[in-house]
Design goal:
This protein is α+β, with helices and mostly antiparallel strands. The chain has helices at residues 2-9, 30-54, 72-90, 94-103, 109-141, 154-157, 341-346, 373-389, 423-426, 440-465, 475-491, 507-524, and strands spanning 177-182, 190-194, 201-207, 216-219, 241-246, 252-259, 262-268, 279-286, 307-313, 319-322, 330-336, 349-355, 416-417, 435-436.
C-alpha cells in the first residue's frame, strides 16, 4: 500500500511494470518514488537512537536497503517502531514482572491477571488491531480490478466492477451455464469431469485444475437434450426436480445405487434411465442482502454465490457430496446417505458463476452478495503464505550467487549483488551497480555478542543460584535478554523456510543484533 501511495504521489499511472531490461519512461518519476520510500530508512535512525536512550545505552543505528523501491525500509522502520513502543509503553521487565506477579504470594491473583491482561493488550491486541485495520482500509479503497484478484474469495470479487463474478445475473435460470463449487473446498475449485476409459460414462470429481469440462446446466427432466437459448427465462426454485447436464459432453449426472441411501456418481449418455438422473434442489441457506429486484431478494430462488443447497437423488434419496479426502488435488464426488455427518458437511454446494446469454453480462452483483471481512482477511493471509512459500529456485541444480543460507548472514560471507552488471545489460544504460554489503566489523561484532550473551546469561543465573550475586533481576540481563530474544525470533525461523533466501532477510534481526552489541559494549565500559 505504501509503495502504491509512492507511485500515485509520483504520478505513475500503473502501466509501467519496472522491467529491469527497459529504460524508465519520462513520466515515471522514480526519484520522487524513492524519496518517500527512503523516508522510512531515515526514520530508523531516530528510532534506534530513542530506543538506545530508553535502554540507557549509547547511540547505534541501522539504515540499509532504503535507496531502492523495496519493502525492506518499511519493514525495518516498523520493526524499530515496535521495539521502541515495547520499551516505552510496556517496559523492559514485562516478562520478568509477569512471572514475579504470579509467584508473589503477597499479590492477589486478580491483580496479577489484570496486569497480565494490560501487557497482553499492549503487546498483542494493539499491534494486531493496527495490522487488521490496514487491510480494512485496503479493502475499502480497492474498487478496481488488480493482479491476483482471482485468488480471493468470490464474494469479494463480486464487488469489483467488470469482474466476471460481478457481471453475472443474480438468479439461476434453467439452461444457464454454471460453475458449481462444494463448500468444503476453500480455493477456486469447481466440479469438473475426469474422463475414464469407458465410452459410456465419465467419473465426476472436484479439481483445482480447470479442464474445460466444469460447466453445467440445470434442465427440466423432459427437456434436457435441448438448448435453452431462445426459451423464456424460468428460474430454479427450492424443491425443483431437475437434471444436471454437462455443457461440454452433453451427458447427464446420474447415480447407480450401491446400497440403502448411497450411490456411485458419474455422467452418462442420454440413453441412461431418467430415474437415475433426477435430482431435487434443497436450499439450506440463502444469505441475500435486501437490495436489488424482487427476484434478487426471493429466498425461494437459487442465487449465485449466496445460496447454499443440496442435491438429493430422487430414486435412492442420497445426497450429492464429495469424498472425505477434500484436501487432495482431486476429490471424488459420491452420493451419501442424507442423515449422515458427511452429507451435512460435504454435501453443501453453491453456484459460483452464472452465465446466461438471455440475461446478458451487464449485471452488477456489488451489494447483492454479503462479504465477510474476516473471511477475506484470512483468505489473503493464506494466499500470502502460499505465495511466500512458493518462492523457490526455478532450477535447484543451477547456483544463484545472489542467494544465501541463514548461517552465512551473521558472518557476512555472501554479500548480495542487487543489479546486473554484464556487458550486454549495461550497454546503453547509465546505471549504478548496487552491491549489498554491510560493515564487516559491525556484523562480526554483533554475531559474537549474540553468541556470547546466552552464555553470559547462564553464568549469571549460576551465580545467582550460588548466591554470588543478588537474586533480583539484573537490569543488564533484562535489557540484553529482550534484545537477544528479538534477534532469535527474527533470525531462527529462516532455518525452517523452504523459500529462496537473500542477505537482506537478515536485516530485521541485524537491527536487534547491533543494539545488543551496543548494549554489551556499554556494559563493559
Amino acid at each position: 500500500l505504501v509503495v502504491a501511495l509512492a507511485e500515485h504521489w509520483a504520478g505513475h499511472n500503473g502501466t509501467f511494470g519496472f522491467n529491469e531490461t527497459k529504460e524508465y519512461p519520462d513520466w515515471v518519476n522514480y526519484a520522487q518514488m524513492r524519496t518517500l520510500l527512503g523516508a522510512f530508512g531515515v526514520v530508523i535512525i531516530p528510532l534506534a537512537y530513542l530506543t538506545c536512550r530508553r535502554l540507557r545505552m549509547a547511540h547505534n543505528a541501522l539504515c540499509l536497503m532504503t535507496r531502492l523501491i523495496t519493502l525492506d525500509s518499511m519493514l525495518l522502520a516498523f520493526t524499530a517502531l515496535a521495539l521502541y513502543c515495547l520499551v516505552t509503553l510496556v517496559g523492559v521487565y514485562a516478562a520478568y514482572d509477569t512471572i514475579d506477579d504470579f509467584t508473589d504470594s503477597c499479590m492477589r491473583c486478580q491483580t496479577a491477571l489484570k496486569r497480565l491482561l494490560l501487557r497482553a493488550t499492549m503487546l498483542i491486541a494493539v499491534p494486531l488491531s493496527i495490522y487488521v485495520c490496514i487491510f480494512r482500509i485496503h479493502y475499502a479503497y480497492q474498487t478496481e480490478r488488480g493482479y491476483g484478484e482471482h485468488e480471493m474469495p468470490v464474494e469479494w470479487q463480486a464487488q469489483l466492477p467488470k469482474n466476471r463474478y460481478n457481471c453475472q445475473p443474480g438468479s439461476i435460470a434453467y439452461g444457464a451455464s454454471l460453475k458449481i463449487k462444494n463448500e468444503q473446498l476453500l480455493s477456486q475449485t469447481n466440479v469438473v469431469l475426469q474422463s475414464t476409459r469407458s465410452t459410456h460414462n465419465q467419473t465426476v470429481s472436484c479439481e483445482r485444475v480447470i479442464t474445460g469440462a466444469d460447466w453445467w446446466s440445470l434442465c427440466h427432466p423432459s427437456r434436457f437434450e435441448i438448448l435453452y437459448t431462445n426459451d423464456a427465462v424460468e428460474y430454479v426454485h427450492d424443491g425443483d426436480v431437475l437434471v444436471v447436464r454437462n455443457d461440454i459432453s452433453h451427458k447427464i449426472l446420474a447415480a447407480d445405487g450401491l446400497g440403502p441411501g448411497s450411490a456411485h456418481v458419474a455422467v452418462f449418455g442420454n440413453n441412461t434411465a431418467i430415474d437415475d438422473a433426477l435430482w431435487k434442489v434443497e436450499i439450506v441457506a440463502n444469505d441475500i442482502p435486501a437490495v436489488g429486484t424482487a427476484d434478487d431478494q426471493d429466498t425461494r430462488l437459487v442465487h449465485p454465490i449466496s445460496t447454499r443447497f443440496r442435491l438429493r437423488h430422487m430414486r435412492t434419496q442420497c445426497v450429492l457430496a464429495i469424498a472425505p479426502n477434500a484436501g487432495s488435488n482431486s476429490t471424488q464426488v459420491t452420493c451419501v446417505p442424507p442423515n449422515t455427518k458427511l452429507a451435512k458437511t460435504n454435501g453443501l454446494w453453491r453456484v459460483e458463476l452464472n452465465v446466461d446469454l438471455r440475461l446478458g453480462f451487464d449485471n452488477n452483483m456489488a451489494g447483492k452478495v454479503r462479504t465477510s471481512f474476516f473471511r477475506t482477511f484470512l483468505a489473503q493471509q493464506r494466499l500470502m503464505a502460499k505465495i511466500n512459500s512458493g518462492l523457490v529456485e526455478a532450477d535447484p541444480e543451477r547456483h544463484d550467487d545472489s542467494t544465501s543460507s541463514p548461517w552465512e548472514w551473521p558472518l557476512l560471507l555472501n554479500p548480495m549483488r542487487m543489479t546486473k552488471w554484464d556487458s550486454d545489460f549495461l550497454k546503453g544504460f547509465h546505471l549504478v551497480v548496487v552491491y549489498e554489503i554491510g560493515n564487516p566489523l559491525l556484523w562480526w561484532l554483533s554475531a559474537v555478542c549474540c553468541t556470547v550473551f546466552p552464555m553470559r546469561m547462564v553464568l549469571h543465573f549460576a551465580k545467582q543460584k550460588r548466591q554470588h550475586v543478588p537474586l533480583s533481576i539484573s537490569p543488564n540481563i533484562a535489557r540484553g535478554g529482550m534484545l537477544w530474544v528479538g534477534w532469535v525470533l527474527h533470525y531462527v525461523p529462516f532455518y525452517f523456510m523452504g523459500r529462496v533466501l537473500y542477505l537482506h532477510h537478515y536485516l530485521p534481526a541485524l537491527y536487534f543484533a547491533l543494539l545488543l552489541a551496543a548494549h554489551e559494549l556499554d556494559t563493559l565500559t
